[in-house]
Amino acid sequence: MAHLTSAEAADLLERFRHYLREHRLPVTQQRDLIAHAIFTAPDHLTAAAVHQRLSGQGKRIGIATVYRTLKLLKECGLAFERHFGDGVSRYEVAWADEHHDHLICVECEKIIEFEDEGIEELQHKVAARKGFKLVRHKLELYGVCKDCQERS
Amino acid sequence: MAHLTSAEAADLLERFRHYLREHRLPVTQQRDLIAHAIFTAPDHLTAAAVHQRLSGQGKRIGIATVYRTLKLLKECGLAFERHFGDGVSRYEVAWADEHHDHLICVECEKIIEFEDEGIEELQHKVAARKGFKLVRHKLELYGVCKDCQERS
DNA sequence: TTAGGTGCAAACGTTTTGCAACTTG
DNA sequence: CAAGTTGCAAAACGTTTGCACCTAA
């Protein structure tokens, strides 16, 4: 689950502000709002979804600013950009201690997160065997979820 | 290695033609050329790369036709479409008996293919645990290759 | 002959960029 | 005040589509 408590979200927001100050970049209302949206989202948001969500709250923010801020969040390591093959980028909070991969239903598009120690260990072994120093990985399992199996 | 012998490439081309005839679709020069380009490529090609490669050979083929044919190759299972997170689709021959994942160097962008039985087995276990019937997966390991490690 | 493919150019949806006006520090 | 951000609209990007013409069977 990528859903953070509001205390955790607040902590991440503070870390983002700290990163900005450290780099002598202004902490603006827009940056706060966008970062907050990502930190409190229960799922993976597209830039358009972030924009809509803020518009719905009466905030007038340009889509360009959303992209610019998402890039900052990526750079400082507080958010990840994901691609699930439909040509749209999705963003999610990078929850420090948690590493998870994705299990995606090919019928209803539901996305479930999981972690597996064993797989991670084998990944490191494979990389080592090829002389690579592993820095990150992406694993997506596509299948039919229980609900969709029953439905058919 | 995704590099096929010319006999293997010829065999795949014949399979493609067979698929087309079976579906009462014409076997055109363009389709032959594009399929051949994919089957003989040593690496993952973008649509633009296929187009360039053919243009370089003096063939005047529209980029739209390249996309249309790549879609056909995907549909008949002879090519896979891959996404490595830079917003561009890459295509590679689907070598029937081989299943491989990718190891990508984050510095020189070199792409190495690998297979690992152990990882695949664990993937099936994870999916089963969550009630999913696994149909396919995507695993990409990003790291620094031996050459780039030495270079720095 | 005719179904369907082709190239072109225009349309598309997502992401980026140039710029004048505006905030932040 | 100066540096850097913002919103807008326009551009850029990869990809798809509409259409008149052409090719395979």
Q: Give the CA-CA distance, first to last residue of chain A.
A: 27 Å
> Largest interface, with Cβ-Cβ < 8 Å?
A-B, 35 and 34 residues
User: Which CATH architecture of the largest domain in chain A?
Assistant: Orthogonal Bundle
Q: What's the total count of β strands of chain A? A: 6
Total number of distinct structural domains of chain A: 2
- Biggest beta sheet attributes of chain A: 3 strands, antiparallel
Beta-strand percent range of chain A: 15-25%
CATH homology superfamily name of the largest domain in chain A: Winged helix-like DNA-binding domain superfamily/Winged helix DNA-binding domain
Q: Specify the oligomeric state.
A: homodimer
Order of helices and strands of chain A: HHEHHEEEEHEH
The rounded Rg of chain A comes to 17 Å
What is the top-level CATH class of the largest domain in chain A?
Mainly Alpha
Share of residues in helices of chain A? 40-55%
The geometry of chain A reads as globular
